Amino acid sequence: MLNYQVINYFHILIVGPLLTYIGYNTTNNDSKIYDLLFLLSLLIFILVRSPGLKLNYRNTINIIHYLMWPTFFIWISYQQNDLPNYMFEIIKYLGISVIAIHYYFLQKSKNL
Q1: Which end of the chain is more exposed for a tag (fewer CB within 10 A), N or C?
Q2: Long-range contact set of residues 72-77: C-beta below 8 Å, sequence gap at least 24
Q3: What is the mean pLDDT of each run of 10 residues along the chain (112 residues)?
Q4: DSSP assignment string, 11-41
Q5: Which of 2, 10, 11, 9 is nearest to 96 (CA)?
């Protein structure tokens, strides 16, 4: 699979900005933006390593990526601009959080 540095850059440059963009534009998003989010939700099953049977940090993260994010992103893609306004705020802050967390992980890995 992908190494952690590539994963962090992917989240910082693609996933986080896409979610932030959707959140900031609220009901003015083009349907192609939602198609891209739908595609990203499907890519999770290809790019994220399958969770193992051990209950450790890495498997917990992978389980969350398999169960929670595709469900949430597909729902957003289906609802598109018909989402409640508060959801756009959640999506915006989720995008900012994704960028911040993965930037932190990237910096932490460089300082090892």
Answers
A1: C
A2: 73/37, 73/38, 73/40, 73/41, 74/38, 74/41, 76/22, 76/34, 76/37, 77/34, 77/35, 77/37, 77/38, 77/41
A3: 87 97 95 97 89 86 91 96 96 98 93 70
A4: IIIIIHHHHHHHHHHGGG--HHHHHHHHHHH
A5: 11
